[in-house]
Amino acid sequence: MTADPSKPIEQWQAFDVSDPNTKKIEFARGELEPEMPYYVKVAAIGPEGEGVSSESIPFDTVSGGDNLS
Protein backbone atom coordinates (compact mmCIF):
# COMPACT_ATOMS: atom_id res chain seq x y z
CA MET A 1 0.00 0.00 0.00
CA THR A 2 1.21 3.48 -0.77
CA ALA A 3 0.01 7.04 -1.21
CA ASP A 4 2.47 7.41 -4.11
CA PRO A 5 1.97 4.78 -6.81
CA SER A 6 5.08 5.95 -8.68
CA LYS A 7 7.30 4.49 -5.91
CA PRO A 8 9.04 1.18 -6.63
CA ILE A 9 7.03 -1.77 -5.30
CA GLU A 10 9.81 -2.50 -2.79
CA GLN A 11 8.90 0.79 -1.04
CA TRP A 12 5.20 -0.03 -0.72
CA GLN A 13 3.93 -1.17 2.69
CA ALA A 14 3.21 -4.91 2.69
CA PHE A 15 0.66 -6.85 4.74
CA ASP A 16 0.72 -10.62 5.19
CA VAL A 17 -2.68 -12.31 5.21
CA SER A 18 -2.38 -15.94 6.32
CA ASP A 19 -6.09 -16.87 6.06
CA PRO A 20 -7.11 -17.24 2.38
CA ASN A 21 -10.71 -16.45 3.37
CA THR A 22 -9.78 -12.95 4.56
CA LYS A 23 -11.44 -10.39 2.32
CA LYS A 24 -10.38 -7.16 4.04
CA ILE A 25 -7.72 -5.47 6.13
CA GLU A 26 -8.94 -2.98 8.71
CA PHE A 27 -7.00 0.02 9.97
CA ALA A 28 -7.53 1.77 13.29
CA ARG A 29 -8.35 5.45 13.33
CA GLY A 30 -5.15 7.44 12.82
CA GLU A 31 -3.25 4.73 10.91
CA LEU A 32 -4.09 6.37 7.57
CA GLU A 33 -4.24 10.05 6.68
CA PRO A 34 -7.78 11.44 6.19
CA GLU A 35 -8.98 12.55 2.75
CA MET A 36 -5.99 10.95 1.06
CA PRO A 37 -5.73 8.68 -1.97
CA TYR A 38 -4.02 5.33 -1.38
CA TYR A 39 -3.18 2.48 -3.74
CA VAL A 40 -2.96 -1.26 -3.13
CA LYS A 41 -1.72 -4.23 -5.14
CA VAL A 42 -2.48 -7.87 -4.43
CA ALA A 43 -0.17 -10.84 -4.98
CA ALA A 44 -0.31 -14.46 -3.85
CA ILE A 45 2.67 -16.00 -2.07
CA GLY A 46 3.18 -19.76 -2.19
CA PRO A 47 5.90 -22.40 -2.02
CA GLU A 48 7.44 -21.10 -5.26
CA GLY A 49 7.54 -17.48 -4.03
CA GLU A 50 5.49 -14.39 -4.81
CA GLY A 51 3.18 -14.34 -7.81
CA VAL A 52 2.48 -11.52 -10.21
CA SER A 53 1.02 -8.39 -8.58
CA SER A 54 -2.34 -7.00 -9.60
CA GLU A 55 -2.69 -3.57 -11.14
CA SER A 56 -2.87 -0.69 -8.64
CA ILE A 57 -6.27 -0.44 -6.98
CA PRO A 58 -7.03 3.10 -5.75
CA PHE A 59 -9.11 4.03 -2.71
CA ASP A 60 -9.68 7.28 -0.82
CA THR A 61 -9.90 7.72 2.92
CA VAL A 62 -12.52 10.00 4.44
CA SER A 63 -12.23 12.53 7.24
CA GLY A 64 -13.07 11.62 10.86
CA GLY A 65 -16.54 11.22 12.25
CA ASP A 66 -18.51 8.13 13.10
CA ASN A 67 -17.33 4.66 12.17
CA LEU A 68 -18.54 3.98 8.63
CA SER A 69 -18.43 0.17 8.69
Automatic annotation (TrEMBL):
PROSITE patterns: FN3. InterPro entries: FN3_dom (IPR003961), FN3_sf (IPR036116), Ig-like_fold (IPR013783). It comes from the Eukaryota. Residues 49-69 are annotated as: Disordered. Residues 1-64 form the Fibronectin type-III domain. This is Fibronectin type-III domain-containing protein. It comes from Parascaris equorum.
